[in-house]
Predict the structure.
Amino acid sequence: MEKVIKNNDKTKFIETIKQIIKGESFTNFEKVIKSDKLSHAYLITFEDEFYNEQFCIAVAITLACGKSQPCFKCNNCLKIISQFHPDVFTYPQNQTFLVDDSISIIRNASIKPMLINYKIFIINNVDKSTIQAQNKILKTLEDTPKNVIFLLNTTDLNNVLQTIISRTLSISLKPLKSESVAQILKAITGKVDYTAINLGDGLPGKTLSLTNQKIAAEYDFILSMLSEMKNTKLIINYINKFSEKSGFLNRLNILQDVMDKLLHANFSSSNDEKIQSLVKDFNVETIYGILNLIVESKKQFEANVNPNLIADYLLFKILEVKYLCNIKK
Ligand SMILES: [Zn+2]
């Protein structure tokens, strides 16, 4: 479990945890903790693996520091940041939570904490653990030694054993506000990528992976496609590029996002020059039509319809409305 973290990563890590602690999800959770006496086990449910892990660390650091806001300077804070606090443990030790992990927890939980009042066990992705491992830990979850706190998390409550759910206090988190995601993104990557944020559904991990996928390049591609496609000859190249299977859904999402922005720009002008230059080609009525088509296209893609066919229909329709929109003027 011990990992060496570089200083640079440490700074990012601290900044991320700080941003999480500031966020609405965390303050709501804090209220739950403070309104009642601490439960021996929490099960945090949220669609985002990355956020779940960081969230549990934020809870652990808050409990371990003991100040109303963690200081990130005391011995306890520093040990958690360096991932070798003697009373805070993260599982699974490898990819999946196995019976061995359960055995290690059971043994460990019976030993008194050394530095703080609690012994904290974080179990990430509990839904991905084996049934045997989940069963093995049941007794400890039911009859938890004094001062032991479990922080379990899952992206999918349906895959967690009912017997685990009934022995824990379940907390569901809501997608984060764009501003909170932006702050986390800034902490980790040093910049804010609004395209990724718009497409990330309030899930910081998803948003991060979108930034890594060079969304900006795709976004530019979609914008130039919309501005340059003027005749049926030109459109074929765009269809081929748009329908490349890897990233197809992403492109549909970006197109949807661009249409939302255009819709907005029809009412109040956009700061984005490229968007503003497209407004004349797409009126409100046609944007609604295209948005419906995008929703249909996503359904077809999920139903395994060939992306090339989907893109063909979609882009020709866009060309048609763009043409009609220009004649009307
Ligand atoms: Zn501290």
In short: The chain has two domains: 7-174, 215-328.
